[in-house]
Every structure is written in structure tokens, then in C-alpha cells.
Amino acid sequence: MVEWTDFERATIQSVFEKMDYDDVGPAALSRCLVVYPWTQRYFGNFGNLYNAAAIQGNPMVAAHGKTVLHGLDRAVKNMDDIKATYAELSVLHSEKLRVDPDNFRLLADCLTIVVAARMGADFTADVQGAFQKFLAVVVSSLGRQYH
Amino acid sequence: PGAEKWLTNTFTQTCAVRPSRHSTFTHSTSATGYNMLTKHEKELIAKIWDKMIPVASDIGAECLLRMMTTFPGTKTYFAHLDIRPGSPHLRSHGKKIVLAIAECSKDISSMMVTLAPLQTLHAYKLRIDPCNFKLLCHCILVTLAAHMGDEFNPVAHAAMDKYLSAFAAVLAEKYR
């Protein structure tokens, strides 16, 4: 059972409330595909991923980025049982999609950096701490059903 | 020479290199054989760090504070310092780190030579578990993003991540 302080709860709600999911989602996924090119192995049918410009302009990447971020919303709204919230998605990623769970951490790191770029000085060390703790729980939950 | 080959091999395995990814891709002919960064990437990295030199204490303190807040285990290395936000210890220590990274970025090909004294310091005196280097590197990237906004685009991010990973790997070189 994850313990959240009042500050952490308030921070997570506030960060996601202010976020434009349709901007941040595509930005985070495309950044991940550029910075960690081996993650492209899961997107063979997405068309042109040949360079940074192609990735950032790719409509399938953008659409999927939005899907992923809206998926994150479920954890934001259910912080007290993220593990159960993502049990099915964890099975999906393990059995069907066969994604190496370390990739969840890579995407989480890229998302953190995108949010930092958007929020600037408002993304203080304490806000970062809360945000990364939240993402660590999400990442752990998504990897939970792998065996 | 053995260490240089290891470094090249490690990074060839870690980062998939695709020849036409950058139109100005050239193989570095440096003595280290390190060729994971294109000429353009090296210039980009040097330019970014050059801007950080005048604010090294601020940037350095911020990186350390972010790291210790997000990864509390890293605080164990700072029992001898006052690590409260804004503390002069944090600023002076942060400044040292930023200046070392900035200095090295001016001539990335000579990294093995430039970092030799720091390699010895980290291996024999500080003995920081190298898993912590990537935690600090991540917080450096976050700090750069918070200060540079959109200018810290995916290409700059990728280049900087490669540079900092190489820096950390070289630093840990003499551990065993």
C-alpha cells in the first residue's frame, strides 16, 4: 500500500490538471523514440521513424502518445490502488505486446523531462520528487503481472 | 587502449547507431576512439554548457537538490555537508560538478585524459556507487529542461544524455 503525503496528492492532481494531455503525450512518446531509439522496436507498423523530424511529425506516434497519457489519468484518479488499476494493462503489455518493462521507466523519464520543460521553474525539486514517485508506482504496477 | 575499446564497445551495444540519422554524421578520429557523438552533437553540447558556466552554482545546486529529493538514497553521500536548499555547501559542491562537466564538453574527444584525476578521486576516495551517476545525470537533464524549455528538444536531449552517460562511464573507469 503506497503512502501519499498531502503534498504529494495535491501536487499530482495539480500537475495533471494543468497539463495539456494532447500536447504532452505526443511530446513524451516521440522524445522517447528519439532519445532511446531501441524503443522503436515496438512500433514497426508506425511508418516513418527514420529520424527525429519524422518521429516528431508522425501522426501514429502522436495518436499513441495521447492514448498513453490518457491512460495515465486512471492512476491520477485512483492513487490509492494503482496496482489494481493497471493489472489488466500489465498483462496486456507482458503477454500480448511483449514490452520489456524497463521501457516504462524510459518513457517515464522522458515524460518527466517534457513536464519540466513545460513547467519551468514551477517544476521545483519537491514537485519533481512527488511526480517521479507517482511515475515509479505506475511503472512498478505495469511491470507487476510479468512472470 | 583496452579501456578505450571497452568504452566504444559498451556504447555501441547501448545505443543503436543508424548512419543516416544525422546528415553531418562523421566518425570521430580522436585517440579515444569514442565516436558516439556527431560533430553537430558535440557543438550543441559545448554550446549548452558554455551558457551554464556563469550560473554554475545555481545550476549545480539545483541538480543536486533535485537528485536528493527524488532519490533519497543519494543523501547518504552527503552526511558531511549542509544539504538544505540554498545552502552554500550545496552551491559550492554543485558548482564544482557543473564546471567539470562544462570543461570536459569543450573537448569531448579528450575526455579520458581530462577526467583522469577525477577518475582517481572517485575510485579511491569518494567511492560513490556508480549506479548513482545515472540518477544525477537524469536530474541534470531535468534541470536543463526546466531552464531551457522547448529549446531542450529531443535531439539536444539525446545528445546530452549520450554525453553524460559517457562522462559517468569514464568516471567509474578506475573502480576495479
TrEMBL record, chain A:
Keywords noted in UniProt: Heme, Iron, Metal-binding, Oxygen transport, Transport
Name the record gives this protein: Globin domain-containing protein
Annotated family: Belongs to the globin family.
GO BP term, pick one: hydrogen peroxide catabolic process
Domain Globin positions: 3-147
GO cellular component assignments: blood microparticle; haptoglobin-hemoglobin complex; hemoglobin complex
Top-level division of the source organism's lineage: Eukaryota
SUPFAM superfamilies, sorted: Globin-like (SSF46458)
InterPro entries: Globin, Globin-like_sf, Globin/Proto, Hemoglobin_b, Hemoglobin_oxygen_transport
One Gene Ontology term of the molecular function aspect: oxygen carrier activity
Automatic annotation (TrEMBL), chain B:
A cellular component annotation (GO) from this entry: haptoglobin-hemoglobin complex
Any GO molecular function: oxygen carrier activity
Keywords: Heme, Iron, Metal-binding, Oxygen transport, Transport
Pfam families: Globin (PF00042)
Keyword Nucleotide-binding found: no
Stored CDD domains: Hb-alpha-like
Gene3D superfamilies: Globins (1.10.490.10)
Signal peptide: none
All residue ranges annotated as the Globin domain in the record: 36-176
GO biological process: hydrogen peroxide catabolic process
Top-level division of the source organism's lineage: Eukaryota
Family of this protein: Belongs to the globin family.
Protein name (record): Hemoglobin alpha embryonic-4
